[in-house]
Amino acid sequence: MDIDRKPAIDAIVIGTGIAGIYALHKLGNELKLKVRGFEKGAGVGGTWFWNRYPGARSDTESFVYRYSFDQETYDGWNWTQKYASQGQMLAYLNAVVDRHGLRPLIRFNTRVVAATFDEARGVWAVETSDGEVVEARYLVTSVGVLSKLNKPDLPGLDRFEGRQVHTGAWPDDLSLEGRKVGVIGTGSTGVQFIPAAAAVAGHLTVFQRSAQYCVPAGNDQLSPDFIREYRANFGGYWDQLRQTRIACGFAEAGVAAMSVSAEERTRVFQEHWDAGNGFRFMFGTFCDIAIDPAANEAACDFIREKIATIVTDPATAAKLSPREPYAKRPVCADGYYETYNRPNVELVDLKANPIAEVNKRGVRTADGKQHDLDVLVYATGFECVEGSYREMRIAGRDGKLLVDHWGDRPCSYLGISVHGFPNLFMVLGPNSVFSNLAPAIETQVDWIAHLVGRAEQLGQLTVDTDATAEDEWTVQCEHMAAYTLFPQVKSWIFGANIEGRPNRVLFFFGGLAAYREKLAEIVSSGYAGYSFAPAAFHTPLRVPSSDSVATPIA
Ligand code: FAD
Ligand code: NA7
């Protein structure tokens, strides 16, 4: 074996959503490494490339759901609305890619199927769907938390003669105009899709398994004054945002719900209902909605009351009213409950009346009713966080597979590094921070670039994490999650939306500011939890040694 053979590429980046694009820029343009991206889709954008369903848009506000590293693209952009639509997000991400010259670095329509660490040489060998093997010293997996589709396994699916589509793989040639449409799922996606589809479909049947606490999004035009002020104070604005928990751009509450009178609680809930946004309603009203059962129940009561007021048919309102705690990722959409007042919309409660079969004409429910459909839409979510990893064969030291290391409890240090998988860096891996994901991604990519920059500067070309650090981080995430009400409900944020999977912790619930503090502590403690070691070959210093590379997390 030629142990000194150096790979032609320094870093491989898998996936080109918000994370992969930034990773290519950071490692390629700033660290001046030779980088290559692989993307299974035909274009960049990730979530915003795939999710083209009617009504698709971000539900964190557009001025915080974008990059902070690139003010130029922002300034040249005509942002008009509070929430960016899928098309606007996709166009924006494409513009960033082109501004920074990243497109030629990406191989599209190319799925990575395996990655194997060659311990003797300290190199990752990455195998693609077309059989090519490309080597690099660093491997960044930015494969998305919500990227692997979850499709229900219903009896008779293959007999349906209409069109079946998942919202996360929406085709460009499908019109719902005047059609009989059925949709399964009422999560974040479903609540956006349902009002948009109802407006054009001939008939819409909503198959609801769990009722949803949905608050208005409050979408509106951004005022020119706001845009001017935000542009003028861009850097300061983002610095402030990174010091918050959820990083959604609103003031996070410091007052406990039960410490104020019932009248005051209602006033605060109403104010936030009027302003719109799910995260704002959960974290901007009171500080303990996601923690204290009584506070949570007060929020539930308020939303249930709204449902009863908005939905004219009491039986439909009752089906739409959740009874479990308000403890899924908060969702929002304008006109969601109002949609059920339309004459062309029907609600089927799958808990009371499950789907018996899909047949050639549509869906038959357990009560014997046939629901004829032209299109059946799965808004059934994703095998989140770990799903895209389970589709690849990733082998670290001693040939150990990542899926075996994880078992049914995916773990990591900081959501980024895995013990025994040196120089593998995940963006939004298990136990990354639960927040608005754009600044979380930037934080993680900055950290990865920081570690790589340090390794290159030291000439210590393998970066691994200790087993203890990984265990301690996992336990800390478990403790934090247990302090909240989130684990009490089955949802994707604990991976329990997948049939047969138990609730497991998959996020760090301490917030972005605390997460960044932890990164800063790691630097000041001499990289606790990390070890840097020489690889078989030594590459002289090549990366810029500027402060921005050396200390990006301050
Ligand atoms: P992704 O955008 O998922 O990109 C991953 C990429 O990796 C994809 O392009 C995929 O094709 C590629 N890939 C995966 N596996 C392979 C492989 N083996 N080989 C090659 N390529 C591969 N978050 C928020 O914070 N706010 C929001 O408002 C918000 N709205 C959302 C709305 C929808 C409909 C969805 C589905 C998600 C939303 N999210 C939101 C979460 C969103 O996924 C993240 O905010 C962010 O876009 C993730 O970016 P990413 O680059 O990490 O992953
Ligand atoms: P979610 O939030 O996981 O929602 C999926 C929905 O689909 C939810 O209502 C599920 O009901 C329902 N579902 C899933 N499987 C089935 C089956 N087999 N039968 C009936 N109903 C089913 O995914 P989304 O795409 O809406 O949102 C994911 C994230 O994307 C979101 O948080 C944003 O970040 C964007 P359940 O609640 O499990 O009973």
Question: How does the SSE layout of this entry go?
Answer:
Layout: E1 9-14, H1 18-30, E2 35-38, H2 47-50, H3 71-75, H4 86-99, E3 106-107, E4 112-118, E5 123-128, E6 133-141, E7 163-166, E8 180-184, H5 188-198, E9 203-208, E10 214-215, H6 224-232, H7 234-241, H8 262-275, H9 278-283, H10 293-310, H11 314-320, E11 331-332, E12 345-349, E13 355-359, E14 362-365, E15 370-372, E16 375-378, H12 387-390, E17 393-395, H13 402-406, E18 424-426, E19 432-433, H14 437-458, E20 462-465, H15 467-482, E21 507-508, H16 512-524, E22 530-533, H17 547-550
Parallel strand pairs: 1-2, 1-6, 2-3, 4-17, 6-18, 7-16, 8-9, 8-16, 9-12, 10-11, 19-21
Antiparallel strand pairs: 4-5, 5-6, 13-14, 14-15, 20-22
Helix pairs in contact: 1-14
This protein binds flavin-adenine dinucleotide (FAD) and ligand NA7.
The site of flavin-adenine dinucleotide (FAD) has 37 residues, from helix 1, helix 2 and helix 14.
Structure in words:
Helix 1 packs parallel to helix 14 (437-458). The longest helix has 22 residues, at 437-458. Strands 1, 2, 3, 4, 5, 6, 17 and 18 form an eight-stranded mixed β-sheet that branches. The protein has a five-stranded parallel β-sheet with strand order 7-16-8-9-12, with helices on one face. The chain has a three-stranded antiparallel β-sheet with strand order 13-14-15, with no helix packed on it. The protein is 31% helix and 17% strand. It has helices spanning 18-30, 47-50, 71-75, 86-99, 188-198, 224-232, 234-241, 262-275, 278-283, 293-310, 314-320, 387-390, 402-406, 437-458, 467-482, 512-524, 547-550; strands at 9-14, 35-38, 106-107, 112-118, 123-128, 133-141, 163-166, 180-184, 203-208, 214-215, 331-332, 345-349, 355-359, 362-365, 370-372, 375-378, 393-395, 424-426, 432-433, 462-465, 507-508, 530-533. Strand 8 (180-184), helix 5 and strand 9 (203-208) form a beta-alpha-beta unit. Residues 546-554 have low confidence and may be disordered. It is α/β, with parallel strands linked by helices and 554 residues long. The chain binds flavin-adenine dinucleotide and ligand NA7. The site of ligand NA7 has 19 residues, from helix 5.
